[in-house]
Design a protein that fits this description.
alpha+beta; single chain; 7 helices; disordered N terminus; about 30% helix; about 300 residues; three-stranded antiparallel sheet
């Protein structure tokens, strides 16, 4: 019976020499980290891997979930008290992201368009991903004071029977602004996820100058935590990695994610996603930033 190495991301953990460099020399360059990243990538071990007792020694041991056990459901929010919409953060064909004030605190509400035949059900994908992330305590409330949160916190799913339910406390100007959004041009009920708002945050695609070698490794550590919850992000482009004003890295937009408990995922998919992200950050974005150029946004995926 073959044994497998410990389930860690060797390339995301800084060695003692790396930590010494990062504390004594803030100007740590990409050339200091790239050789070590390549060596560690060769010994990468995906998360949640267990030795397969039934596989012959000549076959690489793999672990896929045999029994689909979904995580607990997210809280259902039928109404938001003292909700006031402030502005639209993003409008896409599948969803609209708005910033709202809920009981005096800022929240992000991501409202999804009704699913049509032949199109991806973005709400189901993101709901299942956050259900697993909350269950495994990867998505935690801001009050928990997590040192390096990997993703925003999800407060629950909001069921919207009609747009009037949302605009009840809005002014006439706000009502005119939001009623023209395409997502509200339907008679069908809508659903949305209420998420933590991250102030002063920008994605790597919006501001590549924010990314440093240290933050690239933090992004990989955050991705490792997401993988430990059995969530495969799938849409792992730099636009879905945000860095706030305090230098904390979070992954967002799980509307393409695939989650264990609902799908059987070959663990090699986790490895390929991590390697594709590592290549993009360390060999495309950071070198382009150091040269003062725009990245090519090369992405190797599966």
């Amino acid at each position: 019976m073959s044994t497998r190495p410990s389930t860690t991301y060797p390339h995301t953990a800084l060695s003692q020499r790396d930590r010494a460099l990062s504390t004594t020399s803030p100007a740590l360059t990409t050339t200091d980290l790239l050789p070590r990243a390549r060596k560690r990538a060769l010994s990468y071990s995906p998360p949640c891997s267990k030795p397969s007792h039934s596989a012959p020694p000549s076959v690489p041991a793999r672990s896929v979930l045999k029994h689909l056990i979904p995580p607990p459901r997210l809280p259902v929010l039928t109404r938001l008290h003292c909700c006031c919409f402030q502005r639209v953060l993003h409008e896409g064909p599948l969803s609209v992201v708005v910033l709202a004030s809920v009981a005096g605190e800022q929240r992000v509400i991501k409202i999804y368009a009704p699913t049509t035949p032949g199109h991806r059900d973005a709400l189901t994908h993101e709901y299942r991903a956050y259900a697993a992330l909350v269950h495994h305590r990867i998505s935690v409330p801001p009050s928990s004071a997590a040192p390096r949160p990997a993703v925003p916190y999800c407060y629950g799913i909001l069921k919207i029977r009609s747009p009037d339910q949302l605009f009840r406390n809005c002014s006439s100007a706000e009502y005119q602004l939001f009623k023209n959004l395409h997502i509200f041009h339907t008679d069908r009920p809508l659903c949305g996820l209420v998420l933590e708002y991250i102030p002063n945050a920008a994605s790597i695609a919006e501001d590549p100058s924010r990314l440093t070698p240290q933050l690239a490794f933090r992004a990989m550590q955050a991705l490792r935590e997401i993988h430990k919850a059995g969530v495969l992000h799938v849409d792992h482009w730099p636009r879905n990695i945000v860095i706030d004003g305090e230098g904390r890295v979070r992954w967002v937009d799980f509307d393409s994610a695939v989650t264990r408990g609902y799908w059987k995922i070959d663990e090699r998919c986790f490895w390929m996603e991590a390697m594709g992200t590592l290549h993009t950050l360390l060999e495309d974005v950071i070198p382009a930033r150091e040269r003062g150029e725009q990245p090519h946004w090369e992405m190797f995926s599966f």
